[in-house]
UniProtKB/TrEMBL annotation:
<feature type="transmembrane region" description="Helical">
    <location>
        <begin position="301"/>
        <end position="322"/>
    </location>
</feature>
<feature type="transmembrane region" description="Helical">
    <location>
        <begin position="175"/>
        <end position="195"/>
    </location>
</feature>
<feature type="transmembrane region" description="Helical">
    <location>
        <begin position="109"/>
        <end position="127"/>
    </location>
</feature>
<dbReference type="GO" id="GO:0016020">
    <property type="term" value="C:membrane"/>
</dbReference>
<keyword id="KW-1133">Transmembrane helix</keyword>
<dbReference type="GO" id="GO:0005524">
    <property type="term" value="F:ATP binding"/>
</dbReference>
<dbReference type="Pfam" id="PF00664">
    <property type="entry name" value="ABC_membrane"/>
</dbReference>
<keyword id="KW-0812">Transmembrane</keyword>
<feature type="transmembrane region" description="Helical">
    <location>
        <begin position="441"/>
        <end position="464"/>
    </location>
</feature>
<dbReference type="InterPro" id="IPR011527">
    <property type="entry name" value="ABC1_TM_dom"/>
</dbReference>
<feature type="transmembrane region" description="Helical">
    <location>
        <begin position="78"/>
        <end position="97"/>
    </location>
</feature>
<dbReference type="GO" id="GO:0140359">
    <property type="term" value="F:ABC-type transporter activity"/>
</dbReference>
<keyword id="KW-0472">Membrane</keyword>
<protein>
    <submittedName>
        <fullName>Multidrug resistance-associated protein 1</fullName>
    </submittedName>
</protein>
<dbReference type="InterPro" id="IPR050173">
    <property type="entry name" value="ABC_transporter_C-like"/>
</dbReference>
<dbReference type="GO" id="GO:0012505">
    <property type="term" value="C:endomembrane system"/>
</dbReference>
<keyword id="KW-0677">Repeat</keyword>
Length: 470
């Protein structure tokens, strides 16, 4: 049984109709595609993000925060989510009633969609309650989910059919009303997610806490607008220590040092066990290495490294999309495609360019955080080691050597993080660029690659000579 037959059995209609979507004056999607993809995709994103954050938060149980107050904003979010659950439940009961008593056969995909939405909205309600209990002023995950749901279901929703005058007699009026209400509620949830709940005044410092990044809504995080206050204040005044905004608890030296110390102890225990197993054999010098500092850092701070790598890859992909969009836009000028295709091309061109800039900015921000945060943890570990040295061990090190560990060697380890990121990102970027050039230039692009290969050793030799002269 192929995929098309499976979709017909599950949906009783075709999974995708290209003519009704792309080759028509008003784009429409099939009910099967909307129920299986456009609805399940945002739900899958929410569940994946929830599981990922649940795994990452196991090591962050030591970070405590006061609960958030019950405000009009938080109450409105919870009420809308509860109404959303009721609407989906009413839709499920109506489908059962229509199938059994009204003899209107309902496809299996509709029941699957109702079950997925019901469980996902219950999860959203749970996340909102947990957000209040833990004192989190907003949820980046929920804001992404609501916004993605609104975007994915913009085409094909009952509200879209109403605005485009594409309603026909086959549309069930009750399901149409429930679908319109659900979409309006989700749209309201997406708008409310752009605002931040206030904190209890007893635990709240309006001069500083308001500008912590974790307290910012999704748009402020994406556009870095929470930095405007500090930049404007620094432009007019001299910034002192008390004027700097508070950092997140998971970026403080105490927390980072605890995580690094735990990862280092595990790495040290593994190295000791390997050394004891290889003791007396000829392979001690090869496999009996000491604990790896880089592995300990990766185990302690891997979420930041992984996020930076993902953003770097997305930037490499999105920066190559505009040339393809320009090709489609040029071909559109000489074709008889519907007019809305041109608007789509222009919008996608603007969107991909904007996203590539955002990905680059957040990638550099995460790489900077991934460098500064481990540096504080490493310095704390070095100070701890120096203070725990015995009198006999201190004679083996001079004061200058110990100072160089903090001032020079730690900085070299941090620079290694940038070097490792470039080690994998540059080859990927070169492969994507060569593939794009091959598409437009063919074999002629190999001439430029040959020149680049010849210039690389010359550039390296000149860099070595300049370094020696300095």
């Amino acid at each position: 049984m192929n995929g098309n037959q499976g979709s017909i059995i599950l949906c009783e209609t075709t999974f995708w109709d290209w003519d009704s979507f792309w080759n028509s004056s008003t784009p429409q999607v099939t009910n099967c595609f909307r129920q299986l993809v456009l609805i399940n995709l945002p739900c899958l994103v929410l569940w994946t993000a929830f599981l990922f954050t649940a795994i990452c938060s196991k090591a962050e149980s030591s970070i405590k925060s006061s609960p958030s107050p019950w405000t009009l904003l938080s109450f409105a979010k919870l009420t809308l989510t509860f109404l959303l659950i009721l609407c989906v439940g009413a839709e499920g009961f109506y489908l059962l009633y229509s199938d059994r008593y009204l003899m209107n056969h309902v496809a299996s995909v509709n029941y699957i969609s109702v079950c997925v939405r019901m469980t996902t909205f219950v999860l959203a309600l749970f996340l909102q309650l947990r957000q209040l209990r833990k004192g989190q002023l907003n949820s980046f995950i929920l804001a992404t989910f609501w916004s993605l749901y609104v975007i994915c279901n913009a085409v094909g929703s009952p509200l879209y059919l109403l605005l485009t005058d594409e309603l026909d007699e086959t549309v069930d009026s009750n399901l149409f009303i429930l679908g319109t209400v659900c979409y309006c509620i989700i749209l309201a949830e997406a708008i409310l997610s752009f605002f931040t709940d206030p904190q209890y005044s007893y635990f709240w410092d309006e001069k500083k806490d308001e500008y912590i990044m974790e307290h910012q809504p999704i748009l402020s995080r994406l556009l870095f607008s929470w930095l405007n206050r500090t930049i404007w204040y620094g432009f007019r005044n001299t910034i002192a220590t008390d004027d700097v905004d508070l950092i997140n608890p998971d970026m403080k030296t105490t927390y980072v040092h605890q995580r690094f110390q735990a990862a280092w102890m595990v790495e040290d225990a593994i190295a000791r066990s390997k050394r004891s197993d290889a003791e007396g054999s000829k392979t001690v010098g090869i496999f009996g290495r000491g604990p790896s500092l880089l592995i300990a850092l990766a185990k302690a701070l891997w979420p930041w490294f992984l996020a930076a790598a993902c953003l770097e890859f997305l930037y490499d992909v999105f920066v190559l999309i505009p040339p393809l969009i320009l090709e489609w836009l040029i071909n559109f000028m000489d074709s008889d495609e519907p007019a809305w295709h041109g608007y789509i091309y222009c919008f996608v061109l603007f969107l991909t360019t904007s996203l590539s800039v955002l990905f680059l900015a957040h990638d550099l921000n995460l790489l900077m955080i991934s460098s500064v945060v481990p540096r504080s943890g490493l310095k704390a570990a070095v100070y701890r080691k120096v203070l725990r040295l015995s009198s006999g061990s201190r004679r083996n090190y001079t004061v200058g050597e110990l100072c160089n560990l903090v001032a020079v060697d730690v900085q070299k380890v941090i620079e290694l993080i940038w070097a490792i990121n470039l080690t994998w990102s540059l080859p990927v970027n070169m492969i994507f660029t060569i593939a794009l050039l091959w598409r437009y230039l063919g074999i002629a692009c190999l001439a430029g690659i040959l020149v680049m290969i010849i210039v690389m050793p010359i550039t390296a030799k000149l860099a070595i000579m300049i370094h020696k002269l300095q």
